[in-house]
Amino acid sequence: MIDFRPIAFVLGILLAILALAMLIPASVDAAIGHPDWQVFTAAAGVTLFIGGALVLTSRSGWSAFTLRQGFIMTNLAWLVTATFGALPFAFSELELSYTDAFFESMSGVTTTGSTVITGLDAAPPGILLWRAILQWLGGIGIIVMAVAVLPILQVGGMQLFRVEAFETDKVAPRAAQIAGSISIVYVFLTGVAWIVLWALGMSSFEAVAHAMTSIATGGFSTSDGSLGHFNSAAIDWSVSLFMILGSLPFVLYLRAARGNVLTIFRDSQVRVLLGILAVAISLTCLWLWQKDIMGLGGALRYATFNVISVMTGTGYATADFGQWGGFVLTIMFLLMFIGGCAGSTTCGIKIFRFQVLYATAKVQLSRLMHPNGVFVPYYNKRPIPETVAASVMGFFFLFITSFALLAVALGLIGLDLVTALSGAATAIANVGPGLGDIIGPAGTFAPLPDEAKWCLSAGMLLGRLELFTVLVLLVPDFWRS
Questions:
Q1: What three-state secondary structure class fits 461?
Q2: φ and ψ of 377, to 5 deg
Q3: What is the model's pTM?
Q4: CB contact at 8 A, 310 and 332
Q5: Are 461 and 110 in contact, with CB atoms under 8 Å apart?
Q6: What is the b/e burial string over 290-308, where b = at least 16 CB atoms within 10 angstroms of the residue's CB?
Q7: 257 CB contacts (<8 Å, ≥6 apart)?
Q8: 474: exposed, middle or buried (Cβ count in 10 Å: 0-12, 13-18, 19+)
Q9: Centroid of chain to Cα 139
Q10: DSSP 66
Q11: Is the pLDDT assigned to residue 174 strictly greater than 60?
Q12: In angstroms, what CA-CA distances link 198 with 123, 192, 322?
């Protein structure tokens, strides 16, 4: 029998934190006299009451988490946060249905960036700030989970980082200390982003919102035009840098803080990430220039920003790249699946899994050519255990299968081919905008049927929690003693 008391205790703590976070947009709305401050205050009260009740009724009688409790807690943490995070959306002046409110909230906490809200330029400041806060909390949550939880649960090859995560140059030998140190780095980078964006011409409010969503690689903006609203090359280049910083392993920042800055560039994940970005940006830039869509300078600026935004899963847009031609659409579609580095705020398949798959395939080819030879796959100059290789290959299979099933489900609901395929991809990979006229960079998910929004919300959760974490709950043996 699974003991749910430790799970309830942690969920109670999370809800209490969420309730306190709701008071921030409540204060902003109250300061300008907007009536939505009452909505945030009431939502915070309900959330805090339920969170407090969970803590008080489950704080004793347990000592540690079991593996099964860890899986359940991880799933419920994101699901409960999205459920209560939807309350301000549902009861604000936007008057969203709960389906739309839940979709927006799930998109926020999973740092996906898909939205059903139009008219952001005239939306209440509290709602705009709440969207950014949800993504910011989701970003730090996924980093901590990737460092302290997923390696222990051995999800999709993440056990490869168990030693690295708990022996980070002995900076922080315990998971709680690592999580605390990473949180400090996360807050510091957000603060730097806010100062830079404010100095470049954004208002203080806009700078705060975009600093939180760029470091979290979330993509929620304060305008329907996303970052294109500001029409500033300096802002585009700066946000491009912040998106890359959010997509790097945060554990490496701890090493860099001790003076070993070069360790970031020695990491093979980082080098491959930057290499893929360089190739994709170059191809897109040359295409835009050769097709006379824009000049070389503009092509480099817009290609860099939008390629980084899609690959890191941020989802900002400075132009409707859906109008750039089939070649660019193909590149963008493929980049959706790649993602950033393990231990970052990004999602997708992630760079290290492609590296493990390549190393394993290379060894298999070598064994075919030299049957008597001994070949061992390596990652970051370390041998790859067979269990890791098997987990990564299993992840690839489940990722493609989940994507295909979600796309089929969206097709059955009535979505066209491009919308169904790109919608499934952007949900599973937590990117944000899809492709096509409906959910592309210039559109929103508002026109989709409610059934499609619930399917996409499930896809966001599935992708954010690395597939196995969610799917293991569907196995009957998991629930047996």
A1: helix
A2: -75, 145
A3: 0.91
A4: yes
A5: yes
A6: eeebbeeeebbbbbbbbbb
A7: 171, 185
A8: exposed
A9: 6
A10: -
A11: no
A12: 21, 10, 30
Q: Is 85 exposed, middle or buried (0-12, 13-18, 19+ CB in 10 A)?
A: buried
DSSP string, 136-200: HHHHHHHHHHHHHTHHHHT-TTGGGGHHHHH-STTS--SHHHHHHHHHHHHHHHHHHHHHHHHHT
Enter the tokens of residue 152: 């222990």
Q: In this structure, what are the phi and psi dihedrals at residue 469, rounded to the nearest 5 degrees? A: -60, -35
Sign of the alpha-carbon torsion through 76, 82, 85, 88: negative
Residues whose CB falls within 8 Å of the CB of residue 58, separated by 6 or more in sequence, listed in order: 4, 5, 6, 8, 9, 12
Tokens of 13: 């703590």
Do residues 189 and 198 lie in contact, with contact meaning Cβ atoms separated by under 8 Å?
Answer: no
* Structure token pair of residue 181: 């140190």
Rounded-to-integer distance, Cα 372 and Cα 359, Å: 19
Question: Mind listing the pLDDT tens digit for each residue in 297-348?
Answer: 999 999 999 999 999 999 898 988 888 988 999 999 999 999 999 889 998 8
Query: Could you say which DSSP state residue 466 is in?
Result: T
What is the structure's pLDDT at 402?
94
- In whole angstroms, what is the distance from residue 402 CA to residue 408 CA? 10
378 SS3 class: strand
**CA–CA distance, 176 with 461 (Å, rounded to integer):** 24
| End-to-end Cα distance, the chain | 6
Average pLDDT value for residue range 395-416:
94
Q: Which two tokens stand for residue 273?
A: 């990430």
Chain-centroid distance of CA 446 in Å reads 21
367 has pLDDT over 90: no
For the chain, domain boundaries: 5-233, 353-479
DSSP state of 241: H
**168 vs 340: CA distance, rounded Å:** 20
